Each structure stands twice: as C-alpha cells, then as structure tokens.
C-alpha cells in the first residue's frame, strides 16, 4: 500500500492503495467519481474512458501507479447536470444516449479528439471513437454530437472551410 497524489479534475487528491489498482477503481471507490463505468474490465468496451494528460485511456487497464504527475479528467470535470459542458450539451441535444452506460466514456474519448484535432472529419471521428462501444446502437447520434461540439468549439470559417 502506498500513497498516490493525483490531480483529478483540477483538484489535488491523495489515495492510499496498491500501485497496481486500476485507476477506474480509485476513481469510483476512493473518490466517488462514478462517471467512468466498469464495462468489461478488459479494455474492450471503452465505458471506463477518462483522460490522463491529453490522452484518452481505458482506466480499467491503467494502474494508478502509472498516472504519475499527469492530470486526470473525468466526465464530472467537464460540467454538471445543471451546467453541462459543450460536449455534454451536444450529446444531450443530439439525444445520443439511450441507456447512457457508455456515454461518459464516449464523451471523454471525444474530448481527447477535439483537444488534439479541433476540426475532425466524420471519418476521423469514426476512427477515433471506434474503440468505444454502444450496445444501444446510437453511433450515428454520437457522431452527430461530436460534430456539433466540434462546430460549437471551433466554428467553421465563413467560406465553409475547416
């Protein structure tokens, strides 16, 4: 057991845990951040996706000891139910959630994409989001939500060029 100092959604947090404990367990059990979900535990569904630094990571596979000094962002760090962030609002507006289990992971993967590629093509969105699964089949609405957020965050030029 060791103490790990983490920057979670802009706040310093300390947790006492084994270094091989998955980040997902630390977030959910120690810090009560339940946005990231346990889906498969094998890194095959993406429900547990959070950002570590600028990267979307599968928190069920990432040992807390590998986080280091990189900041961790969860869906709770993007907005709240009363004041959703741009991506959260786009997912709401496009009715991208059906059961909602995958959506926090989808939003975090999309956040990582839009931070590194503010004007992704639909193909780039599809490719980037492919690791995250939606069993309800709302993939087209999710694609529209990411496109909507990209356009809100980085409006196309007046001539339509990105």
TrEMBL record:
Q: Which residues cross the membrane?
A: none
UniProt keyword annotation of rRNA-binding present = no
Ranges where the 2Fe-2S ferredoxin-type domain occurs: 2-78
Query: Sorted alphabetically, which InterPro entries does this protein's record hold?
Result: 2Fe-2S-bd (IPR002888), 2Fe-2S-bd_dom_sf (IPR036884), 2Fe-2S_ferredoxin-like_sf (IPR036010), 2Fe-2S_ferredoxin-type (IPR001041), 2Fe2S_fd_BS (IPR006058), Beta-grasp_dom_sf (IPR012675), Diverse_Oxidoreductases (IPR051452)
Pfam families in UniProt: Fer2, Fer2_2
- What keywords is this UniProt entry annotated with? 2Fe-2S, Iron, Iron-sulfur, Metal-binding, Oxidoreductase
| Name of protein | (2Fe-2S)-binding protein
Organism field: Massilia terrae
């Amino acid at each position: 057991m060791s103490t790990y100092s983490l920057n979670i959604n802009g706040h310093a947090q300390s947790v006492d845990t084994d270094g091989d404990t998955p980040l997902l367990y630390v977030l959910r059990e120690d810090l009560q951040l339940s946005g990231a979900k346990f889906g498969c535990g094998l890194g095959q569904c993406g429900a547990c996706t959070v950002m570590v630094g600028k990267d979307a990571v599968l928190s069920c596979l990432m040992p807390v000891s590998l986080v280091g000094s990189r900041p961790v962002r969860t869906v709770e760090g993007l907005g709240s139910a009363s004041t959703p962030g741009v991506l959260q609002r786009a997912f709401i507006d496009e009715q991208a959630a059906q059961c909602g289990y995958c959506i926090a992971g989808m939003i975090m993967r999309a956040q990582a994409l839009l931070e590194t590629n503010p004007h992704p093509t639909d193909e780039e969105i599809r490719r980037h989001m492919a690791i995250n699964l939606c069993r309800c089949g709302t993939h087209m609405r999710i694609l529209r939500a990411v496109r909507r957020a990209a356009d809100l965050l980085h409006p196309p030029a007046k001539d339509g060029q990105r």
